[in-house]
Amino acid sequence: MDFIYLDNNATTPLNPVVLESMLPFLKEDYGNASSVHELGRRARTALEKSRGQIADLFNAKPEEIIFTSCGTESDNYAILGTAYLPENRHKQIITSKIEHHAVLHTVEFLEKQGYPAVYLDVDENGIIKLDQLEKALEKETSLVSIMYANNEVGSLQPIEQIAKMCNEKGVKFHTDAVQAFAKHPVDMSKIPIDMLSLSAHKIYGPKGVGAMYIRKGVKLFRLMHGGHHEKNKRPGTENVAGIVGLATAARRLQNNHEEENKRLSLLRDKLQTALLNNIPDCYVNGMNAARLANTLNIRFDYVEGESILLHLDMEGICASSGSACTSDTLEPSHVLLAMCVPKERAHGSIRFSLGETNTEEQIDKVIDLMPTLIKKLRSMSPLGHKSNK
Ligand SMILES: *Cc1c(COP(=O)(O)O)cnc(C)c1O
């Protein structure tokens, strides 16, 4: 079956150019980047070249980039690595209610160890309230961690303002930019971000490789112990093929981000408008937010999101109920609840997240299919629906 893959915020297909760039390091150039012989030197050269390429995308220095195993590891290192510094013990940490679980559960873990934590509210568009942040910053704080772009609804936070507010107070600022990286470029010489997390598999790169930007001078408590890899910050033999793939993917996307964001937002808006016009009682979650170009989180009243997804799946259409990490639980999305979507309505929400492989033809197929599907599900639903009566 030819799939229509609309779950790009969960993961993306590996781009063929990216795969091609990785192959030499999975085949003949298999050296360990720490070895001194020719094969080791080739791996080292590829590794450092990739580091430089990623640093360039941020207008940063190569030594400010370290490679990790994923976005989750980067988030953990930024948060735990800051909190565990002796001078930061039991100081307050500020985050938001709509973070990815890689951040949220890490802060909750610290809270259990006696660290005071503040979870900032968001408005109905999934944007934090800056005055609430300002107030929270009055108490001595070691770290603020606010995501750049939300994975479920796509809302973009005012990262520059947040970074500046933290910087003025001398508080470290980390952002989980896994969904925004290479789509919304960041110039580190202009925005005082201290740490940033990213991941390859959300930008058409391979799974199992990520990176962190760590501003020069920012200290972190070591979480893992081993060799002297990654400037002594992250031990473990580097995943050279993965890192080369990450750098290729990031450059490809960032160099083309304006055009691709435009293309995706046209497709997304076409889908959004058609669903809103052709299906009664449906609403876009975060409709008026500055949003990622590819993301549409939409709510259909009187029907379960899970049953929509099952029926789409039978047609070869891959969508999601929001967060891939919570979709096997029946808890409504913490993001939608924070946006004050009532519990039963949150359950009727699904996320379409578009990507570079999607065509207009595919979107048209979804547009054709959805009204009939929703009507059918509503007619079967015990929740009932007036338009079917
Ligand atoms: C996917 C994702 C992560 C986790 O990244 P992994 O590389 O899968 O560990 C973290 N934050 C956000 C916003 C994400 O979308």
Task: Write up this protein.
There is one protein chain. This protein has 389 residues and is an alpha/beta fold. The chain folds into two domains: 4-12 and 257-388, Aspartate Aminotransferase, domain 1 (Alpha-Beta Complex), CATH 3.90.1150; 16-255, Aspartate Aminotransferase, domain 2, CATH 3.40.640.10. Helices cover 40% and strands 13% of the residues. The chain contains 13 helices and twelve strands. Strands 2-8-7-6-5-3-4 form a seven-stranded mixed β-sheet, with helices on both faces. Strands 9-10-12 form a three-stranded antiparallel β-sheet. A two-stranded parallel ribbon has the order 1-11. Helix 9 packs parallel to helix 13 (360-380). The relative contact order is 0.16. The mean pLDDT is 95. The chain binds pyridoxal-5'-phosphate (PLP). Pyridoxal-5'-phosphate binds at residues 70-72, 100, 102, 147, 151, 176, 178-179, 199, 201-202, 210.
List the helices and strands and how they pair.
Blueprint: E1 4-5, H1 16-26, H2 38-57, E2 65-68, H3 71-83, E3 92-96, H4 101-112, E4 117-120, H5 130-136, E5 141-145, H6 159-169, E6 172-176, E7 195-199, E8 210-214, H7 229-232, H8 240-255, H9 257-278, E9 282-284, E10 295-300, H10 305-314, E11 317-318, H11 334-338, H12 343-346, E12 349-353, H13 360-380
Parallel strand pairs: 1-11, 3-4, 3-5, 5-6, 6-7
Antiparallel strand pairs: 2-8, 7-8, 9-10, 10-12
Helix pairs in contact: 1-8, 2-8, 3-4, 9-13
**Any low-confidence stretches, pLDDT <50, length ≥5?**
none
- CATH class of the largest domain equals Alpha Beta
The N- to C-terminal Cα distance equals 36 Å
Helix content: 40-55%
Main β-sheet, spatial strand arrangement? 2-8-7-6-5-3-4
Mean pLDDT: 95
| Radius of gyration, whole Å | 22 Å
